[in-house]
Design goal:
The chain is mainly α and 170 residues long. The chain is 45% helix and 11% strand.
Length: 170
C-alpha cells in the first residue's frame, strides 16, 4: 500500500488540535516534524497516519497528564519510528506503553499486563479516527489471517518473494 499523506488542515482536524497549536507543534517548534515539509509559502505540509497518531498521543499526554512535550521530543520521535515499522491493521486491540525512561512499546490484546511504572494508552479510539480520515483498513476479524507480514514485505522475506517471482517469470 502506497503511503498516503494529508494536508495540514485535515491533519489538524484528525488530531483534535486547533490549527494554531498544530502548526506550533509541527512547524514552529518542530516538536513532531511533518512527513513532507511545505514546498514554500502558501503550500501545506503533509502528514502520514503514523505522525497523526503521534500527535494525538502527544495531545492526550499534554491535556490529561499535563506533560511538557518539549522535554519528551526525542521520545516522540522514537514513537514515530516505532509506528513506521508497524502495520496499521496489527495495532487494533493493542495498547501503547510509555515507560519512565522515555521508551515506547506496543502490547497486543493477549500480552501480559505491565508491572513497571509506566503510562498505558489504548489505541483503538485513535485508530477509528485514523481509519475514517485516511480510509485505512478496518479491524480484521479474528479468523482472518495475514497474507503477507510486514517483515516479509520489507525484510529478508521480500527478497525471497522477489526472487521467487523472478524465477517464475523467467
Amino acid at each position: 500500500m502506497a503511503a498516503r499523506f494529508i494536508p495540514t488542515s485535515e491533519a489538524a482536524r484528525l488530531t483534535g488540535l486547533p490549527v494554531a497549536t498544530f502548526r506550533e507543534w509541527t512547524v514552529r517548534r518542530a516538536l513532531i516534524a511533518p512527513d513532507v515539509a511545505p514546498a514554500g509559502k502558501g503550500s501545506s505540509a503533509k502528514f502520514a497516519w503514523q505522525t497523526i497518531l503521534v500527535l494525538r498521543i502527544a495531545a492526550l499526554l499534554k491535556a490529561r497528564l499535563h506533560i511538557e512535550l518539549q522535554a519528551h521530543r526525542d521520545s516522540l520521535a522514537k514513537l514515530r519510528s516505532l509506528l513506521g515499522r508497524t502495520s496499521f491493521v496489527k495495532l487494533w486491540g493493542c495498547r501503547l506503553l510509555y515507560d519512565l525512561d522515555g521508551n515506547w512499546q506496543i502490547f497486543g490484546p493477549s500480552d501480559e499486563a505491565v508491572h513497571d511504572d509506566s503510562v498505558v494508552l489504548v489505541l483503538d479510539p485513535h485508530l477509528v479516527i485514523l481509519r475514517d480520515g485516511f480510509a485505512l483498513p478496518r479491524q480484521p476479524s479474528p479468523e482472518q489471517l495475514e497474507l503477507f507480514t510486514l517483515d516479509a514485505m520489507h525484510g529478508e522475506g521480500r527478497q525471497r518473494i522477489e526472487a521467487a517471482t523472478f524465477r517464475r517469470s523467467a
